[in-house]
Amino acid sequence: MLPNISPQQKTAVTLLSIGTFLEFFDLWLYLHMSVKINDLFFPPSFKHSWLLSNFALCSAFLFRPIGAIIFGWIGDTLGRKATILITTSMMAMSCAVIAILPTYEYIGVLAPIILTICRGVQGIASLVEVAGARLYLLESSKPPTQFFLIFLVSASATFGRFAAVGLASLIELLDLSWRIAFMFGVVVAIVGTVARRALKEASNFSNARKRLISYMSDSSKKVLEKSPLLRRPINKSSLLFMTLASMAPNTCLFFLYNYSADFLRSKLGLTPAEVLNHNSILGLGEVLSDFALGYLVLKFHPFRIIITRSVLHLVVIFAAPFVLSNAQSPVSILILQTLAMLFAVDVEPGGVAIFYTKFPILKRFRAVGMSFAMAGAISYTLCAFCMKPLTDRLGLCGMWVILIPVWINFNIAIFYFAKLDKKTRNNEDIM
């Protein structure tokens, strides 16, 4: 049975889910199209093309801490809605530039530089998107409805990734220009910007701002300094453990869509079109699994689901090198990917709702934004630049050097927040 959701919450989750879908569609469109366009912007004749193409991929995550600082302040000062509208517009502009950008053949090294900057802008926009949408719903609802609403937004990100690989596969199947895909991304981002103008500011954030203003009725600085809304610090331990927990989903996604795609091309000889078709099937499975998780989060506490999936994921980690080394067809790899996706180490469903409440509301956007940004920057950069060299040097078991420590850190973080949540479950959220 679905939880009791008010009309305003239905409107908010619909608009936020649409926007998150659009943002992640645009962000992941490049990742899937890269199997086709990398040679155009990073040709093999270009010195260090592998290094630079990986940097372009990672730039979507490396620039996120900058966005966390800028938009964290905007989100905690001007509001959640303002940041969401600004970043959706940024996504539209970056897609437009990529769509019309001349390749390396025409403008030389300027092409990959501009492309990398556009990817950085997309990364910043998607960071604020997912953090802003989750915070908006967190501050507009209460548990257990809160867990379900926030998960719907996260599931829309999954659907956005699936739609991106589906479009990329269709473009390749019909032998159309890759630029059409990015022009479609522009349209998608513009639609998201217009649709979200109907959002109202999150109620909890608005109430906190009003209480802060009441402290400022006397312009005395001493009165303002006594405000508990400003004096409550960000817990550094909570920030660290949330960052460790958030690294795991990024590492899992890299294995599913980046490392596996490279393995399919280099070891099994699949063409870019075949890799895209393969990933389309995997993406569909990811969407379907989200429906199951959405049902489970209505029945069980989020941490029970998260810990169960994590334990089963460890089995997949140990099996992965042996499955890959004996793979004779893409089917066996698809089965491995599907198991890794079903039993992913992920803070969803519902975990982020518990994490975010452990930070003061008027500093919350900055805290969760920086944590999410640093987790993506560290994990994707580590995977992109280290996983392939490790497996080349140590064999496929070399992936354990990254995957096992990430898994351990994830579980330490989950148990930290589970213990913290047990202490504060009957208290009000930190304000």
From TrEMBL:
- Give all residue intervals belonging to the Major facilitator superfamily (MFS) profile domain: 12-422
* Any one Gene Ontology molecular-function term assigned to this protein's record: transmembrane transporter activity
Q: Where are the transmembrane segments?
A: 12-31, 51-75, 82-101, 107-128, 148-170, 176-195, 239-260, 280-298, 310-327, 333-356, 368-387, 399-418
Q: How does it sit in the membrane?
A: Multi-pass membrane protein
Provide GO CC annotations from the record.
plasma membrane
Which controlled-vocabulary keywords does the entry list? Cell membrane, Membrane, Transmembrane, Transmembrane helix, Transport
* InterPro entries noted in UniProt: MFS, MFS_dom, MFS_trans_sf
* Localization, UniProt: Cell inner membrane
Q: Which Pfam families match?
A: MFS_1 (PF07690)
Q: List the PROSITE patterns.
A: MFS
Name by which UniProt lists this protein = MFS transporter
Q: Which organism is it from?
A: Candidatus Sneabacter namystus
